[in-house]
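for the writeup, i need someone to sanity check this before i put it in the appendix. the sequnce is what the collaborator sent (i think, or maybe the updated version? ugh). structure was predicted straight from it, no edits. if anything looks off just tell me and ill rerun, i have time this weekend
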Amino acid sequence: MSTTVQPRSVREGFILPDDLSVYIGKKTLVKLILEAIDCLDARGSECESETAPGPLFQPARMLTLLTYCYATGVYASTDIELGMQHDQMIRYLCGKNDLNPAELREFRRYGRDRIKACLATVLRRVWELRFCDEDACPMACPGAPFGRWLNMRPTPDFAAEAEQRIVRAVQADSMAMDW
């Protein structure tokens, strides 16, 4: 069974962009990620020490970093590494630690379930904030037909969307290794 990632225009039922910070801003996105991690830890998910990639980087920080990157459309480990130089939020999330792509891939491999659960929670919260709150308005025009269409559509499958983002990261890293 092969996993195929379809382009956004083909998939139905999901209208969040690759970069969620477009909707809610980078600081709010990080806040939602930290809340999702707290929620995961409160539910008693697997022990973080099992997913630790190395002694220099804390698992919670790595989980926050990868969830943030996948929520903003940065999938390749080399792009995350470059983001430490060019993206202020990625640099902040890394702290003073230098990461290499191998560490990122290893954490993704062993922490995949936690990344997926955290990312799905963040996707759901962004969806709720953007489209389901009392003052949410998906279109600038009040009474636009899009609002009626949105209410008729089922809630997106956030776990499937999170899995697709992780698959994109794996594919991006695989393609980079082929060059």
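The chain has a mean pLDDT of 77. The first helix runs from residue 21 to 24.
thx in advance!!
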